[in-house]
Amino acid sequence: MRKNKTTHVVAGVLLPLFIIAFIVLTGRFMYIQATGVVDGVSLDEWAKQKRTSSYPLYAERGKIYDNNGMTLAYDRPIFRMYAVVDEKHSEKSDTPRHVTNPEKTAELIAEVLEVETEDILMPIQNGIENDRFQVEFGNIANELSQQQRDDILELKLPGINFEKDSIRYYPNGMFASHIIGFARETEVQKEKEIKNEITGIAGIENEMNDILGGKNGFISYQRDKYNNRLLNPNEIIREPEDGNDVYLTLDQKIQTLVEDVLTEVDEEYNPKRVTAVVMDPKTGEVLAMSSRPSYNPNNPANVENWYNDAVSSPFEPGSTMKIFTWAAAIEEGVYNGSEGFKSGSYRVNEKITPIHDHNNGKGWGTISYDEGFERSSNVAAAKLVWEKLGADKYLEYLHAFDFDKVTGIDLPGEVAGQILYNWPLEKITTSFGQGTTLTPIQQMKAATAIANNGKMLQPYVIQKIVDSSTGDIIEEKSPNVVGEPISEETAKQVRSLLESTVTSEDGTSGRYELQDYSVGGKSGTAQIPNPNGGYLTGKDNYIFSFLGMAPIDDPQLMMYVSVQQPELETTETGSMPVSFIFTNVMENALHYLNIDPDKDTEDIVNLIEIPNLAKGKAADIAKNLTDQGATVTTIGNGSKIVSANVKEGDTVLSQERIMLVTDKPTMPNIIGWSVRDTLELADLLKLKVEILGNGFAVTQNIKEGTALKENDYLGIEFKIPTMPDEELEDATENPEDETGNE
Prior knowledge:
Mean pLDDT: 86
GO molecular function, one term: penicillin binding
CATH superfamily of the largest domain: DD-peptidase/beta-lactamase superfamily
Protein name: serine-type D-Ala-D-Ala carboxypeptidase
Distance between the termini: 127 Å
Main location: membrane
Number of domains: 4
Pfam family, one: PBP_dimer
InterPro entries: Beta-lactam/transpept, Beta-lactam/transpept-like, PASTA_dom, PBP_dimer, PBP_dimer_sf, PCN-bd_Tpept
CATH architecture of the largest domain: 3-Layer(aba) Sandwich
């Protein structure tokens, strides 16, 4: 048969093409076989990756403690629940490893989580219908507590599993939140990957993020398609490195005192702002610092004020500035306290606006400069600067007190005030705290020179950094004297003047007197600038403040309080909310620190020495202490005392609560307890505590008499009691609050 000519032509064309294609494909297969690489991807590595499971081993973020080791922030474990619904997962197991009864499983879990049964049942049924291996349950099961997980595990439901994670938790809730700040899980770029890590957002959490953070590890192993480990899984483990712990100078008990009274004043007077700072003037350690509005770092939603006002919000200080004006005049040798001057109003010349005293310029006739300080005379301050010191010399002292710079406190967001000193009137008004702006912490730093015999200390809130794994101290701070603007003699004379404002018949600070301790200080009533020019008017439109120290001969504590624009009744004065904060905190804090009262305290307070608690029966020891007038709570009905919040040799006040934990601890009735006593109880018993609200306990989730064990969950609701009516005084007894910038 003759072949078609066209067939020859087509065959001649196709044959070479087939030969070329064969060579290319064969060559490609040989190349892949020889190199094991496709498009730059190693097939061996790809296969290993496909059959390798890798999980992060999260480093525990370092804890934040107060100065006594009370935990203020830590990583709390949470659990994400998921359900395996693929019955193939149970093929090689003697017991079911998948959900076998969706209805029963959903019903039991819903009861524990207090959700609708359908919320659990629907995801399980959808997973089964769509041949999925496992299902999750959204927000209702993403952040389960350890107690919830344990309760579900006790049900022994097949197919229900948990994945452990952690969130940053603050056991004291709205407690020093502007200092501690908060941390949250955020996306972080690391080694060309986006990873989720707990990261500090504000406060110490942000400032010390690298110290607290640590380094995550990982574990990887080879598995089959059911996620079971192979016999030779080639497991690789890199252990995580936990973050270091940070200890603050804050004292949990003093901070709690501050938080309680600030909340009470906030509820009673509805001010725009409240700020309080407690400091040890001998060291510069900040023992407490808080402000309102505040927020709960466990749920920082709808936050009104992110700023820590004590360090970030300068304002015109008012007459607390007179402390430093008088100190400068005394130090410079131009002050004569008994010298008289004409009070009321003062005008340097016709080109400068006259200065008026705060009682509408009426004054008190001719009085001494000492009395001018007691009465908080603006005229006295102006004459001291303009006629005695000289404006240039006064400016030198403003710089010596570091009013032109930040304090350098170890908190984020510090802002320095501004010395307004361009024109003659500004130089004069600075003498009594108008025009020039300062932060509370700047004033506290300067006042350490008054309290500490001339030596000015830098304030700080970080006490030390500790290796969380070894307990070794990595870094520890110590007092830092940053200046000596005045002498010891001047400091003593100024303290005497400060005491006179409290004790003198003419003084403006009588409301700040303490029961057991001598106290000195200076009040302030600062005007608030009007955005449209000038200053706001009206009885409430001031920042009322007080800077005080006690005991006045050798101050152990110093405190600053400011309350902005409180809503005052007709008969109330601005010093009422300020003094309520100051006196409550200072009196109790000084007793708590075992500072000896310098007033006659006979029959006022009973001091009790703690015996050896390890010897004798618990009931006998409790009775002995009670007979001495102590307030004793015995925890449990055991015969031996195994721990307590006091130790042998301690001296405590009769009003302090002594907690004795027996070898059979049971839950006491804590209704009416303060937050600090409740936290101390939880710390003693190693309970997981959740605080709701502030004030005093009104509910407890564990019934009285219930046996307790470590890590039990204790939830308590606190409420602020109604502030008792105070005896109202005539407003004219505190002329500083009437009008003007006192």
